[in-house]
Amino acid sequence: MSVVTNTTTIGAIEAPSRRNTELMMLAFAVAVPVFAYINVGLAIDGKLPTGVLGYALGLGLLAAVAHLVVRKFAKYADPLLLPLAVLLNGLGLVMIWRLDQSPRLIQRAEAQWGAFTPDAPKQMLYSAIGIALFVGVLLLLKDHRILQRYTYISMVTALVLLILPMFFPARNGAKIWINLGPINIQPGEFAKIIIAIFFSGYLMVKRDALALASRRVMGLYLPRGRDLGPILVVWAMSILILVFETDLGTSLLFFGLFVIMLYVATERTSWIVFGLLMSAVGAVGVATFEPHVQQRVEFWLNPFAEETWAQSEQIGQALMSFGAGGTLGTGLGQGNSDLIMFAANSDFILSSFGEELGLAGMMAFLMIYGLIVERGVRTALAARDPFGKLLAVGLSGAFAIQVFVVSGGVMGLIPLTGMTMPFVAAGGSSVIANWALIAILIRISDTARRPAPAPAPSPDAEMTQVVRP
Amino acid sequence: MNKPLRRIAIFCGILVLALLVRTNWLQYVEADELNENDRNRRIQVERYASERGDIIVDGKPITGSVRTESTLYAYKRTYADGPMWAPVTGYASQAFDANQIEKLQDGILTGNSDQLFFDRTMAMLTGEEKKGGNVVTTLSAAAQKAAWQSLGDKKGAVAAIEPKTGRILALASTPSYDPASFAGAELSDARAWKSLERDKDKPMLNRALREVYPPGSAFKVVTAAAALENGLVKDIDAATDTPEPYKIPLSARPLKNHASGCADASLNRAMEVSCNSVFAKLGDEVSRDRMVETAEKFGFNDPGIDVPVRAAASVYDKAMDRGGNALSAIGQFNTAATPLQMAMVTAAIANDGRLMKPYMIDQLEAPNLDVVEKTEPEEMSRPVSPENARLLQTMMENVVEKGTGGKARIDGVTVGGKTGTAENGFGNTGTPYAWFISYAKDGDGSPVAVAVVVEDSDATGGDISGGGLAAPIAKVVMNAVLNSGG
User: Fold this and answer.
1) Where is this region: Disordered (chain A) (predicted)?
2) What is the domain range of residue B340?
């Protein structure tokens, strides 16, 4: 008979790593913002901006480092996540740089604080720190399941991060900042990742109890009273954040995140119903006695009202910005989105994209965010362990809710909340935390797609003839 | 766990879909509405983003544009002799929008008009800075200055037209305002605007175009035209069968004549001394519908006289009874006319019966002074035949020669005119209006037709005030045109 060379019964088909795909997409993800940068320079000064080389090299270097690290330490990771994040980060930098050159914003800054400092170099630095954290996560976190060990430490850390801002003065009506001398941190951005880790670890352990020990009433599985404990605690936390930190966005984000993860862990629709009921009760309850929230709703319903224009102007200006963009936009550097004035390059940066890139650009932007979420959920589907599934869906769910809450608020779809658009808005916490989020998703997807290790050679292999698949 | 995961995926998809729908709604469906929002400063910002083009009279700009320190509006409008030219230019204010030429030709003045697309593209390629185009008007600086100065402190308006072409030569309105006083967006601009809006003399009202006055006896030329056109009078020197006093139809009230010798007076004589009875009776005989027909040929009842600034519609009532028609025939009752309308009546008669469409924009120029669009004279209608027009001219020239319009006489020039003093308000309780319409002739037809109205607090009735207050102003304006070789 013929000599069989292969001694294993299962052929180890090398799964494609898709790293080259990632590299090619990264090239686009760097080229598009570089062209956008040139476009801004030409529109504003009529000549090639001098900083273009530095910008291209900087962004290219960050992308290259991230790519090499992924290639080495997360070979089988999802090939889309990194390019999408680089593209968003790059475009965000371009828009921040463009708004840095707005005479209106410069004048406003000089009138208000005596001096104007451009945000783009800072943002470049934050992006570098973000990529460094991304690299750090991939290097140190060889397997995402390690995070499971830190379930309760995560809980404590998250609580501390969420409660801390209460003790710091409010900035612009919302207590979401920790001031440490020259550094301002928005702990909510980091808390969102840490709390997802806690929920994943906690729910993985408790999911059976939460799913099975229930009574069936009117077609719904009602959880036992004592199992309601955790959800009540999280609900109370969200309400507390809303009341004491007047931060609608963070509150919504955490509660939504918890309900999503609870639902995925238990597969019980009753939890969704419960969650929606509780958020409705919470929202109505808070709205009746919290003037800050009432005001937000009022501005949302009547952004152009005569009496409140002084306060609701930002929202009105943002809406007019979108309108001014129309279908194709005014072109980069040629819009008047700086009329929004305050927070034009952070919370409201999306309106600048809306005005200068138009409906076409906005659709592309939202699709990019949608794609990141889609890759995240796909990672959750592909993950082989429940902890990984929960963590991946938690992180992508949080990302989705944040995108919805911020852009919905800026576009007047829902009341405005003080949160930043991931990757594009000026602000260190947001960029750094979101790079960590992407790193964890990449780690989970790498583990999920990594081919199973080849089984040990079977001593019986020589004896049996098996046709390889 | 995969089933709930797929559901969560769908949920996230719905979130993104909601955002996509919302951005379509905002940027496509609602975009126009948002762009027109009163709070939206983009139109203003665009308007003043680059150097604004000028409005030009006799080859010289009467407007200007200066660079400002503001980061919101890069340029600001300036005006030379603002109050004098305000009825022509209108205003362009950073805070209070714009009107008249400044608004209607905004596209040319800002350089954003589609007509300038080629120039814009060329400028972009050659790297020139964007600039607005110019609007060249038909006005005569001399005539405008004459009108403005002779109106002086009086409240009133002057409209002057070149009969051959319809070119508007003067358009003055007093009291006026300085559009420069609120051209910016500072607190002082807002104060100036508020005080102008509150002013009970309405300085921002363009009386030459936008205000209608009862024309009084000045309207009698229209009645005479209707009588001649409809064959009711063939010989202007033949006696008419007019009783003294004449009773208004459907009314026992006798019509008062301020002049004497109106019984059976000829049309020519009735015009000379301005007999109410003769013209009221003629108007009645012509009948309301045929009066309406003639008046409309002169431009009455037309809500769309755009020069290109839209003039208010002058009125000759189409539904009144016989008594009303008789009174309307002498320019009272519901009859009302803008100064421009009366200038058009005069111009049509002076131009041998051909009414030319009045216009005040001669041409539009690109920033490089290429002509983008030129207005050609256009005939609007022929209210009277050339023969009848000449008869009307004879009568109007007689008014100046021997009658109530003596103060408009110019040595060595043939001038025809008609005075009018209109009662205002029920029982003449309001301020009467002194009117004078006239034209001057040189060897080659008539270069100018003018209508003057003065809101006169001292007028005592009769035609004294029309002849006394308004005629000298008309004379100065006609002289200015004649001397400038227009």
Assistant:
1) 449-469
2) 214-362+376-483
